Amino acid sequence: MNIDPRGVRSFWIELPFTVGIMSLALFIRLAIAPVSAGLQYVTFFPAITLAAIFGGYRAGLLATAMGVGFATYFFIAPYYSFENEGLKIVSWSNLVFIVDGFLVSFSIEAMHRYRKKSEAELAEIKQSHLQVSRLNSELDEMIRLQRETEQELLISATAFEAQDGIMITDSSGVILRVNQAFTEITGYSSEEAVGQTPRLLKSGRHDADFYAAMWECIKRTGQWSGEIWDRRKNGEVFPKWLTITEVKSFDGNSVHYVSSQVDITARKASEDRIHNLAFYDPLTQLPNRRLLLDRLRHAVSFSLRDGRNVALMFIDLDKFKKLNDTLGHDIGDLLLKQVAERTCTCVRECDTVARLGGDEFVVLLDGLGGSLHEAAAQAKQIGRKIIDVLNQTYYLAGHEHQSGASVGIALFDEHCRTADDLLKQADIAMYQAKKAGRNTLRFFDPEMQASILARVALEKDFKEALLKENFYIFYQPVISNGGRVAGAEALVRWRHAIRGIVSPADFIPLAEETGLIVPLGNWVLKTACRQLADWSSRDDTRDLTIAVNVSARQLKQEDFVATVMGLIEETGASPQRLKLELTESMLVSDAESIIIKMNLLKAAGITFALDDFGTGYSSLAYLSRLPLDQLKVDQSFVRNIETEESAVVICAATINLAHNLKLKVVAEGVENEAQRKFLSSVHQCDFLQGYLFSKPVPIDEFEKFIRNYRVL
Ligand SMILES: [Mg+2]
Question: How far is ligand 1, taken at its centre, from the CA of residue 549, in Å?
Fold first, then answer.
């Protein structure tokens, strides 16, 4: 321990401090006791004490000497000089004062030293305490680290036996350790694997470059991850996800390689399955709409870049729905599979055949060379080839089937800017082909587009007309065999604000497709019922019937019976005067529920006629099951009575058949006297309808016709 005996201050601070404090004591003494040297203790002694306390023992001794000097010089006569006489006088008191001064100075010094020593010891004790607590915390940290290490070891041991296969090799690749999962994945036990190298698992599916790249990556980054094909002990090649991590020693050298591996056989299989489901049609294994659109967009973007030609072909099978309805969906599916196979044989490697759903197939022809004209010729050639192969007879589980196809082709050119445009155009072209008859091929062109746009406009106007009831009914008289007006057929007409009268041939198919035929048909029914109610109060019209044409769509409505009955009740029309005309084609699907509805209406008194008889393909067996009252011979037969023998036979046979089934017959399209004579005089046709009597006319003209009509 090193304690400074002079206390805290240096000599050059002690000196002026001591002189100052002693001077202050002198002045105080001069002021309170100017002549007595014996009172040194009153002032000089406290000053010595203060000097010793604050300056140390040297200051105390200096102050003592100054006190002796001051007392002798200032307070012993003769004053202000040092003389032997004076010194003798105060020698005893000075001696005592000096001893006291020494004692005080050294006592205070001793106290200083003791205090400093105590402080130093205290600091040392504190230091020791600090050291002890530091050691304690170091010990705690060591214990904690040890526990952590133990925990980590435990985790490592558990991880080593986890689900991932783990293999540890030394720096030269010799297997040192494998876990249980490794054995389960590869089939090799620990005993079989240890001592070998990973070549044990090599499948031969990867070349030397693959492994070189893998090791290069490990050397550079310390790790490699990726999919790899390996071989199990039983010889089976399987995919796994492998991660190799390099373990380095403190000096930076590779000492071990740890590889963890997961068998991804199941994952890959399900990935493939999901990919297939997402992009391929499960029935035909052809690309689906999504994949087609993807390839189409790709092809279109390439076309924009390098000017290659792209064509899109829409294929629609004729009569597919009918096949499904008659032979069932299983047979329909067989046809679709064969169509897929046959179509694929007609296209090139780079083309895509896709199935969008139902019987809609699309072919994407990519990279057609030459000019647009040449590309079109190439597409046409492929299209014709497809039509030809699809037209050949199909053998579907014992059923022989003949089918045709309609093909629409659109080329990517200045008229279409996107893949979606091209799809739309090919679709439009396909509909044009369908319209033109079976086994036809059509190209899209802008005029076709214009007619589509016109159709859209017509649809919009039609909806508006329906809201505003811009429709009205023409009545065409039906004349009985006896020459009496028996009633009329109600025929709807549309008066368009700009186009004038729109032909039913234009708007009825539109109404059918859009479903607007239902509200339109209901409106016709209601108007006819009102007319019947109106006629019932007048003698000349009381017995007239009105025949209303009912569409398939209308008839299929769940509430059709309720709607008709509601209209009859609302208008007060007699149900016996209302006749509903159905066509044969309606009966193809869902005949049972239609028969139920017909029977319900029939029970209420409503009668039924089968329209356009002879043009459809309904089975004659239905005729006896349907609650019909009349057959209407189609005008195409009536028109040809005079020229075609077959028309004569058909008309006669139909009338005969109807009469045998206890049905009345109406012949449509009677235009001249010869036809009338043949039908009603020779063959006893019950009713006639046609221009010979009157064309369809507005209600007031019809009523005028009744009043003026005389039996021919
Ligand atoms: Mg009709």
Answer: 5
